[in-house]
């Protein structure tokens, strides 16, 4: 019986001594899988963002892109209209531009007119890199003596592009994005 009581006392004394020892620090190895996953996801996001920005930069530098508007607003004071049609665009090619954009007339009860013309190589084309993206500007003649001035601000982090078009009658602002020009459907394959 003495041995039993002595064993229990020793067990209790050992437990008390062990309970008073400071706890061991948690090692980073216990959390390593979660930390590694978190770091890997952050690296993947950074790589995806870098690829997106590089794609936007490449579009601007190629001078072979199209602006696809999602909204239009006559400046100053006009009401914003949502554009729910992929039919509208401004296409910039190395040797010409194509303009097919809605324009608004009137402030109280605006109505839409479609500006539709092709022009030879844009005049005074300038593309300058900024801290947030690109500023692009150029002029185009519609063939009827009207000169249109275009200014595009591209924010490479988000892909949002705002375009201002000065017409002979008004100033119109569009919000949209840039995309690569699609190859023409009726063009024969190159190389023979």
What is the number of helices? 2
- Measured between the Cα atoms of the first and last residue, the distance is 105 Å
Morphology call: elongated
Q: What is the beta-strand fraction?
A: 35-45%
Low-confidence stretches: none
Structural class: alpha+beta
Count the beta strands.
Answer: 10
SSE pattern, N- to C-terminal = HHEEEEEEEEEE
Helical percentage: 25-40%
Q: How does this structure look, described?
A:
By secondary structure, the chain is of the alpha+beta class. Helix content is 26%, strand content 42%. It is built from 2 helices and 10 strands; from the N terminus they run ααββββββββββ. The model has no long low-confidence stretch (mean pLDDT 81).
Can you tag this structure with a few keywords?
ten-stranded antiparallel sheet, elongated, alpha+beta, 192 residues
Give the SSE map:
Blueprint: H1 2-20, H2 32-62, E1 65-75, E2 80-82, E3 89-92, E4 96-105, E5 111-120, E6 123-129, E7 133-141, E8 147-155, E9 160-166, E10 171-180
Kindly summarize this structure in a few lines.
By secondary structure, the chain is α+β, with helices and mostly antiparallel strands. It contains two helices and ten strands, in the order ααββββββββββ.
């Amino acid at each position: 019986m003495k041995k039993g009581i002595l064993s229990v006392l020793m067990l209790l004394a050992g437990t008390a001594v062990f309970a008073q020892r400071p706890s061991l620090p948690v090692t980073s190895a216990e959390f390593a899988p979660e930390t590694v996953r978190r770091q890997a996801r952050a690296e993947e996001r950074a790589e995806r963002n870098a690829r997106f920005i590089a794609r936007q930069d490449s579009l601007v530098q190629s001078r072979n892109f199209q602006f696809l508007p999602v909204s239009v607003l006559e400046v100053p004071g006009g009401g914003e209209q949502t554009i729910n049609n992929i039919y509208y665009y401004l296409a910039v090619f190395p040797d010409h531009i194509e303009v097919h954009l809605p324009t608004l007339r009137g402030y109280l009860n605006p109505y839409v007119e479609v500006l539709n013309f092709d022009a030879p190589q844009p005049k005074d084309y300038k593309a300058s890199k900024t801290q947030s993206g690109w500023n692009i500007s150029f002029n185009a003649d519609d063939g009827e003596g009207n000169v249109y001035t275009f200014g595009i601000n591209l924010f490479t982090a988000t892909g949002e592009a705002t375009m201002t078009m000065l017409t002979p009658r008004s100033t119109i602002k569009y919000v949209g994005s840039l995309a690569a020009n699609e190859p023409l459907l009726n063009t024969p394959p190159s190389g023979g």
